[in-house]
Amino acid sequence: MPLRPYSCDNCGHWQRWFAEPPSCPVCTDVRNALPEDGWAWTTPDDLADRTARWAEVAPGVTGFWCEPQIGLGTTGWVLETDAGPVGWEGAGFYPPEALAELRRRGGLVALGASHVHGYGALWQLQDELAPPVLAIDVRDLAWTKAFVVTWPTDARHELAPGLVMHRSGGHFPGHAVLHDERRGILFVGDLLKVDLDGDRPVGLSCHKAYHAQIPLSHDEIREARALVERLDFEAVATPFEFAAPVTQKQVLALFDHHLGRQPLAGPVPLEELT
């Protein structure tokens, strides 16, 4: 019996299964909420009505989305580099016009993601575009059954010149951030959550589980702080949005805020971090 891709209607996580999966590992994890009405699944055939959207959010940085969104509504980032286009995180689904646009750009020389909440339809990009590298931190391989990891990464890994993955830990043991050294952007995954008022950042938070409001521990915050202190940036991108200006100084101030007291998972107003 062939394996088929199924997306969880509650969170959008894709898995390959014989028939409808018995459960979703992302939803049963402590970081997420269970579906109130039980399990329901979507297949690629069910998404024939979805359309693609993409937009350049910074020079050489394009976000890809499907509309209507599925699951958590993740963004698939594509970054132009001297070596060719690199994909980071995955849109929830890639309609045919999105795949055609990526082929027009020459495909992808590498693909990676911060952690399972940002995987989206990485399996689809691998099946359709066959990038030579699909990089995920070695500590998070348990979440990658929908695709094949061709390069398990350690604490530091260069996807392309000036584009470096760093293990941050915290939210997940193998959680990684991507530092675009040339553009001064940190693709933070769920190391940070950015609260927006329209397009304007107004608050920052960090968490082990946002829905359950479980904060990071002090040691996890110290580890993240030590990493961020080494990375220069003036903007951040999560699996959901691009946010500028959010600076290294403000992120360090957020970590210092939590290290001085009982840590919380909720947002701290940005005006308190400047």
UniProtKB/TrEMBL annotation:
Any Pfam family matching the protein: Lactamase_B
InterPro entries: Metallo-B-lactamas
Domain Metallo-beta-lactamase: 117-226
PANTHER family given in the database record: METALLO-BETA-LACTAMASE FAMILY PROTEIN (AFU_ORTHOLOGUE AFUA_5G12770)
Protein name (Swiss-Prot/TrEMBL): Metallo-beta-lactamase domain-containing protein
Species, as recorded: Pseudonocardia oceani
